[in-house]
Amino acid sequence: MRPNLSVPTHHDLGLATEASIHNATVNVDAPSWLWEERIRYRLLYSNPTAIAYYNLDRWEASVPTLLEHRLHIAAHGKPINLKIQLLQFEQQFESANHARVVMLLKVHAFSGESTALLGQRVFKFAKNTPTPDAAGAIKGFVDLTKQANNELSSWVAALLGVNKAL
């Protein structure tokens, strides 16, 4: 039996790792245009202000929701809350044959014991996609999410004064 090629395929950001009570509490917010399931792309080489969407590929949930469930930031048993503002999450085509994915996060870290701000930082992640299409975008975003998880965990460890070698 042939699959129906006109039915959208739903994707997530990969298999979730088991959440731990030693992880930071993560809350992700975003502008209204990122609270949807469509996968965004932009043709920088021909019309850089136009946003386009893949017709047959969708996220399983909104991007902020997916990130909130996939980011498991190690807090080393210390109470910490991360408020993440997702500012950009799109595939950008520099030419018809070359694309990259971009994710921009503004992160505020608060002590879980109070509302004291421990630190804030902007993280920008970008990666060339293996192919200039929806499949390449999805693979790229899965990789960026892993990279974000690792870099945010390192940043939180530094804020908390934790020696990761222990």
Describe what this molecule looks like in 3D:
Strands 1, 2, 3, 4, 5, 6 and 7 form a seven-stranded mixed β-sheet that branches. Helices cover 21% and strands 42% of the residues. The protein has one domain: ABC-type transport auxiliary lipoprotein component (Rossmann fold, 3-Layer(aba) Sandwich). The model has no long low-confidence stretch (mean pLDDT 89). With 166 residues, it is an alpha/beta fold. The radius of gyration is 17 Å and the shape is elongated. The relative contact order is 0.19. It has two helices and seven strands, in the order ββββαβββα. It starts with 8 loop residues before the first strand and ends in a 6-residue tail after the last helix. The protein has helices at 63-70, 134-160, and strands at 9-11, 25-29, 38-43, 47-59, 80-95, 98-111, 117-128.
Please give a handful of descriptors for the protein shown:
166 residues, alpha/beta, Rossmann fold, seven-stranded mixed β-sheet, elongated
How many β-strand stretches?
7
CATH topology: Rossmann fold
Shape: elongated
Portion in strands: 35-45%
> Structural class of the helix and strand makeup?
alpha/beta
Low-confidence segments: none
Calculate the terminal CA-CA distance, rounded to whole Å: 54 Å
Fraction in helix: 10-25%
**What is the CATH architecture term?**
3-Layer(aba) Sandwich
CATH class: Alpha Beta
Largest sheet: number of strands, sense, barrel closure: 7 strands, mixed
Query: If you compute it from the alpha carbons, what radius of gyration comes out, rounded to the nearest whole angstrom?
Result: 17 Å
The run of helices and strands is EEEEHEEEH
As for the number of domains, it is 1
CATH superfamily: ABC-type transport auxiliary lipoprotein component
Average pLDDT score:
89
